[in-house]
Amino acid sequence: MRDVSIIGVGQTPVREHWELSLRELAVQAVLAAMQDAHVEDVDALYVGNMLSGELTRQEHLGALIADQLGLTGIAAMKIEAACGAGGSAVHAAHLAVASGQYRRVAVVGVEKMTDLWNGSVTAGLAMAADGEYEAANGISFVGLNAMMMRRYMYEYDLVEEDFAPFALNAHANAVHNPNAMFRKAVTLEQFTKAKKVADPISLFDSSPICDGAAALILSRSENLNGNAARAISIAASTSATDTLALHDRQDPLWLRAVELSSIKAYAQAGITPQDIDLFELHDAFSIVAPMSLEAAGFAQRGAGAYLARDGGISIHGKLPISTMGGLKARGHPIGASGVYQVVEAVQQLRGEAGKNQVPNARVAMTQSLGGVAATAVTHILKGK
Q1: How many alpha carbons lie under 13 Å from residue 237 in its C-beta half-sphere?
Q2: pLDDT digits (tens, 9 = 90+) for 185-239
Q3: Which residue in the list 83, 94, 210, 282 is annotated as catalytic?
Q4: Nearest residue to 168 via CA among 140, 188, 152, 151
Q5: Measured between alpha carbons, how far is residue 264 from residues 73, 82, 256, 296, 318 in Å?
Q6: In terms of Cα–Cα distance, which of 9, 20, 25, 18 is closest to 335?
Q7: 286: which of 60, 161, 337, 353 lies 20 to 30 Å off by Cα?
Q8: Which CATH number fits domain 4-117+209-220: 3.40.50.960, 3.30.70.3270, 3.10.20.30, 3.40.47.10?
Q9: How many CA atoms lie within 13 A of 1 on its CB side?
Q10: 332 is catalytic
Q11: What would the DSSP string read from start to end of 335-370?
Q12: Banded pLDDT at 116 (limits 50, 70, 90)
């Protein structure tokens, strides 16, 4: 297998993009990544997306976006893994380059979610769960996470306020991210008074519905096209799965896919959790953050929330997370989020994160989850 590096990144602001279509968002992100990489062509295009057919009546995104980029003729395909589609697209692209099949590929994660009323989006998101045994019986995606959070609170004797540091940290970091949707800090009082979405999950426990696109250019490390000084190495790219339905798990409070994907990633990169300088985790809901920290080996079981206390997850903390706002405050354009995470990790490792820069960042980890962590895709990146 060949070594693979990221030589270009691009992104659009995460917003309600009423004036831009899905294809326009994707094209803007890819062109920005190609410009950053100083390249004019790629051998293949991988598109991470979940809901294009459901919300925009547009499938066949690989050919569509390649066409709009003026790159007809290249291999192009859509990768779908629910909310983990973006991370899965990066994983597929990495394998394509590492195998020697392609010398250089583009990855774009894109989602357009705000053109239809929220009932349609909620119904679409429910497709990330088990359609026959969960969604068909009336449980929404946020409802599944709410049940998991309620049980977690019961088992570990926690209250809703114990999850506040995750939201407060994300919003504090988003203030300095020009591409974030919510660039405003949140106070503890605002968190505790927020309206419930699905008890105990409140508005500030939940990532927003939004639009956006993020892109990467991956290249064989042996031929970086003049980008060696800013290239970031992909030290590990792994994926794992768990049961799709929450009720089928032996232990609903343990994210087995996260554990498996993380273990494989550490082994592939030749490191341990203690070597990670920052972690872009999948904080679609507050409950996912502590459970991911535990399953990925950063905290003992039931102690993930304690890691967030006293600034432990802040930019200058023991383990910075959601350094550019995370899914919670940067926004969660479903199929794009996993690519945004990698773009932001590259910014950190290049030293280009501005006021959000993690000091001396050399090793970053990103993790994109699909469904209630039925899919987990982990990437470990290394800078110079």
Answers
A1: 26
A2: 999 999 999 999 999 999 999 999 999 999 999 999 998 989 999 999 999 999 9
A3: 83
A4: 188
A5: 35, 21, 12, 11, 23
A6: 25
A7: 353
A8: 3.40.47.10
A9: 12
A10: yes
A11: GGHHHHHHHHHHHHHHT--GGGPPTT--EEEEEEEE
A12: confident
| 33, pLDDT greater than 80 | yes
* 364/267 Cα distance (integer angstroms): 15
**What pLDDT is attached to residue 92?**
98
Question: Two tokens at 34?
Answer: 């190609």
Which runs of consecutive H residues, i.e. helices, occur in 48-163? Answer: 52-56, 61-68, 85-98, 118-125, 141-156
Q: Which amino acid is at 252?
A: P
Is 210 annotated as catalytic? no
Task: Bin 257: left if φ > 0, else alpha if -120 < ψ < 50, else beta.
Answer: alpha
Using an 8 Å Cβ cutoff, are 227 and 241 in contact? no
Q: How far apart are CA 124 and CA 354, in angstroms?
A: 36
Chain mean position to CA 151: 25
Instruction: Please report, for the chain, the start and end positions of each structural domain, with discontinuous segments joined by +.
Output: 4-117+209-220, 138-205+235-382
Query: Is 161 strand, coil or helix?
Result: helix
Comparing CA positions, the residue from 158, 122, 163, 120 lying closest to residue 139 is 122
Q: Which of 91, 282, 332, 379 is catalytic?
A: 332
**Which distant-in-sequence residues (6+ apart) come within 8 Å of 268 by Cβ?**
235, 236, 237, 238, 380
> Fold for domain 138-205+235-382?
Peroxisomal Thiolase; Chain A, domain 1 (3.40.47)
Cα separation, 174 vs 18, whole angstroms: 22
Among 284, 263, 115, 300, CA closest to 197: 284
User: Is 267 in a helix, a strand, or coil?
Assistant: helix
Q: Taking a C-beta distance cutoff of 8 angstroms, is the pair 44, 74 a contact?
A: yes
